[in-house]
């Protein structure tokens, strides 16, 4: 689906000359971003674990420590009308990831949770949970289907008083062909991507020998909180003003250390731009990540640029074809990939 829209973009952009830093073209982006509707996924909290194992903890708590907690994926669809437009959606749980996973896992294991020790809890730090289209050409796949993937990372601790004992870590990527029609996308994601991941979590919780976990090294609560919240989000690009210059890589962007500080931006034809360094040399924009004038920051895609908008501890932007043809994309703050 993304390839389809990108094809439209590169074809149509030459018909509508404009400059990517033209404020008029992006004046509504912030408002449009705030008004992006959700496509909601609802987990079945009536599902119950069939095993008889008893756990030593009373409850399961989910801490959502992802950079962007506003969604688990994005969906865009072209609207067929006299004046073409693209409708963007954010795919999310009905009550947010942390609340939904908390309710699901506690209800799933309700008869296995301890009623004796109020002090012990299972604390799960959700570091990654995002669904993206997989940019791969695959034979024998219906036009209404595409290969998508879910990236999931969770680190689980047994908490007793102020001590945290490392239990296990799940870091997985699953790929599946799912339907892409708007009427089916949330059910397809839930059934073929989310539930297989949750079954992995369920199996690890069930198969862990909990009585031995507290024999491991423990960490104070202050250390754990500092690691998963303070240090994790203490990136210079999130805590400092943009520095004027060109970020040649995601690493430079993340560290807010542009390696090219003297540059100019030259307008090109059909909305393209050129970047010129202090020596007057033209730079290859396809090898650059982003640039900033010290106040705003633009991400580079080919010879085009788009203003970044801060969302939580992440950044999103509209890949803009013309004023009403915009595809919402985001930077993966773990890898720098665009999805």
Give the key terms:
alpha+beta; 5-stranded mixed beta sheet; 4-stranded antiparallel beta sheet; 18 strands
Description:
This protein is of the alpha+beta class. It contains 9 helices and 18 strands. A 5-stranded mixed beta sheet has the order 2-5-6-7-8. A hairpin with a 5-residue loop joins β10 (263-267) and β11 (273-277). The longest helix has 23 residues, at 185-207. The termini are close together.
Order of helices and strands: HHHEEEEHEEEHHEHHEHEEEEEEEEE
Q: Strand order across the biggest sheet?
A: 2-5-6-7-8
Radius of gyration: 23 Å
Mean pLDDT: 87
Poorly predicted regions: 1-19, 136-144
Write down how many β-strands occur, each being a DSSP E stretch of 2 or more residues.
18
Would you tell me the structural class of the helices and strands? alpha+beta
Beta percentage is 35-45%
> What is the overall shape?
globular
The helix count comes to 9
Helical percentage:
10-25%
> Span between N and C termini?
12 Å
Largest sheet: 5 strands, mixed
């Amino acid at each position: 689906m993304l390839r389809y829209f990108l094809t439209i973009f590169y074809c149509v952009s030459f018909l509508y000359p404009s400059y990517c830093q033209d404020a008029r073209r992006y004046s509504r982006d912030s408002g449009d971003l705030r008004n992006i509707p959700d496509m909601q996924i609802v987990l079945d909290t009536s599902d119950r674990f069939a095993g008889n194992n008893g756990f030593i903890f009373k409850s399961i708590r989910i801490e959502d420590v992802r950079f962007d907690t506003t969604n688990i994926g994005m969906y865009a669809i072209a609207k067929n009308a006299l004046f073409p437009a693209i409708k963007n959606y954010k795919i999310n749980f009905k009550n947010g990831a942390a609340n939904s996973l908390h309710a699901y896992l506690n209800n799933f294991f309700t008869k296995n949770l301890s009623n004796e020790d109020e002090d012990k809890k299972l604390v799960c730090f959700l570091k990654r949970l995002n669904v993206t289209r997989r940019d791969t050409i695959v034979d024998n796949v219906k036009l209404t289907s595409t290969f998508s993937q879910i990236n999931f990372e969770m680190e689980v601790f047994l908490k007793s008083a102020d001590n945290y004992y490392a239990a296990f870590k799940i870091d997985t990527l699953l790929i599946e062909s799912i339907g892409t029609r708007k009427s089916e996308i949330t059910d397809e994601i839930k059934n073929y991507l989310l539930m297989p991941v949750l079954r992995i979590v369920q199996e690890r919780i069930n198969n862990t020998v909990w009585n031995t976990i507290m024999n491991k090294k423990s960490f104070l609560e202050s250390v754990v909180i500092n690691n998963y919240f303070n240090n994790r989000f203490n990136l210079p690009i999130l805590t400092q003003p943009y520095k004027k210059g060109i970020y040649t890589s995601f690493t430079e962007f993340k560290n807010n250390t542009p390696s090219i500080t003297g540059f100019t931006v030259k307008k090109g034809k059909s909305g393209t731009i050129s970047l010129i360094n202090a020596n007057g040399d033209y730079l290859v924009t396809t090898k650059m990540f982003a640039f900033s004038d010290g106040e705003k920051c633009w991400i580079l895609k080919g010879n085009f640029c788009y203003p970044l908008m801060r969302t939580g501890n992440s950044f999103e932007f509209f890949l803009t074809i013309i004023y009403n043809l915009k595809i919402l994309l985001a930077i993966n703050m773990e890898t720098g990939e665009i999805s």
